[in-house]
Write a structure and sequence with these properties.
By secondary structure, this protein is α/β, with parallel strands linked by helices. The chain folds into two domains: 171 residues, HAD superfamily/HAD-like (Rossmann fold, 3-Layer(aba) Sandwich), CATH 3.40.50.1000; 75 residues, 2-Layer Sandwich (Alpha-Beta Plaits). The protein has eight helices and eleven strands. The protein has a seven-stranded mixed beta sheet, sandwiched between helices. Strands 5-6-8-7 form a four-stranded antiparallel beta sheet, with helices on one face.
C-alpha cells in the first residue's frame, strides 16, 4: 500500500468535498508505464479501476489530456465514453459526443505537409528514429535510438524545421521532440475542461515536461500530482503509475464518503 504524507491526505480531503470535481490525467507515464511500442501501452489495472470508480461518484468528471493523437489515445485507453478526451496536447477534443473536433485551414494543412517531409527526411538518416503523424504536426521519436543518434536527430530536426517554417510550436518530451502548427498546450486544454465541466476544483496528474503547462494553471484548492522524477511546479509527487492509481483510489473513497455523509 502506498504511504501518503499528511499534507497529501489533507489536500485530497479538501478536494473531495468540492461541489464539482474534475479529475484530469495524462496517460503515458501517469496511468500507464512507458513502453517501446506506443500502441502497446495500457493503463495498469489499478489505475483503470480507480478511474472507473471515480466515474460513478456524483458531480465528478474524469478527463484524459495527452500528447497522443486522438485515435491513438482512444486505442490505448479502453475507457467509457463518459471520460472526456483531449489529444495532441489539446488540439483535438472529444467531449460528450462521439465526434472529435479539429479544424485546420488550408494554410495550416500546407504547413503540416511540408513539416512531415522535413521530419521524415531527418528520421531516415538515423537508426531507430521514427516520425508519428498528428493532426496538427508530428512527433520525432528516439526512445530506441542511441543517445548520440537521439541528440543529433533532435538537433537536426529542430534546425531544419525552424529554418523552413516560421511560428512552429516545439515541445521537448521524454525521448521525443514534437512539432505543431498550433500553439495549443495542456494548460489551454485544462482551462477549457474546467469551464466545460463547471469544475470548482481540479486534480491534474502528469509525468512529462508538457504537463507543466497544465500544472501552471492550477489555482486555489486544485491538486497537482507529478508522477516520477524531474523538475515540477506540482505541489505533490509520487514515484510511478501504481502510486498515481493509489491516490486516485483514495480520492474516490473520500469523495464517496463525502456524498454519504449527511449535511449538518
Amino acid at each position: 500500500m502506498t504511504d501518503f504524507s499528511a499534507s497529501l491526505l489533507d489536500g485530497l480531503g479538501e478536494l473531495s468535498r468540492t461541489p464539482r470535481l474534475l479529475v484530469a490525467l495524462d496517460f503515458d507515464g501517469t496511468l500507464a508505464p512507458e513502453v517501446d511500442v506506443p500502441d502497446d501501452a495500457r493503463a495498469i489495472p489499478e489505475a483503470r479501476q480507480a478511474v472507473l470508480r471515480l466515474l460513478q461518484v456524483p458531480d465528478t468528471r474524469v478527463a484524459l489530456v495527452s500528447g497522443r493523437a486522438m485515435e491513438s489515445l482512444k486505442l490505448v485507453t479502453d475507457l467509457p465514453d463518459a471520460v472526456l478526451l483531449f489529444g495532441s496536447h489539446g488540439v483535438e477534443a472529444r467531449l460528450d459526443t462521439p465526434d472529435t473536433t479539429l479544424t485546420l485551414d488550408e494554410a495550416e494543412r500546407g504547413r503540416v505537409e511540408v513539416l512531415g517531409l522535413l521530419l521524415r527526411d531527418v528520421a531516415d538518416r538515423f537508426e531507430h528514429v521514427w516520425v508519428e503523424s498528428k493532426p496538427a504536426g508530428f512527433a520525432l521519436h528516439t526512445r530506441l535510438a542511441s543517445a548520440r543518434n537521439s541528440l543529433e536527430a533532435h538537433e537536426m530536426a529542430l534546425a531544419v524545421a525552424v529554418a523552413e517554417l516560421e511560428g512552429l510550436t516545439v515541445r521537448p518530451g521524454k525521448n521525443v521532440l514534437e512539432f505543431s502548427v498550433r500553439s495549443t498546450n495542456k494548460g489551454d486544454a485544462l482551462n477549457r475542461l474546467r469551464e466545460y465541466a463547471g469544475a470548482t476544483a481540479v486534480l491534474y496528474a502528469g509525468d512529462d515536461v508538457t504537463d507543466e503547462d497544465a500544472f501552471a494553471v492550477l489555482t486555489g484548492t486544485d491538486f497537482g500530482l507529478k508522477s516520477g522524477p524531474g523538475p515540477t511546479v506540482a505541489e505533490f509527487r509520487v514515484a510511478a503509475p501504481v502510486d498515481v492509481a493509489a491516490v486516485l483510489e483514495k480520492l474516490a473513497e473520500l469523495r464517496e464518503n463525502a456524498y454519504q455523509t449527511p449535511a449538518p
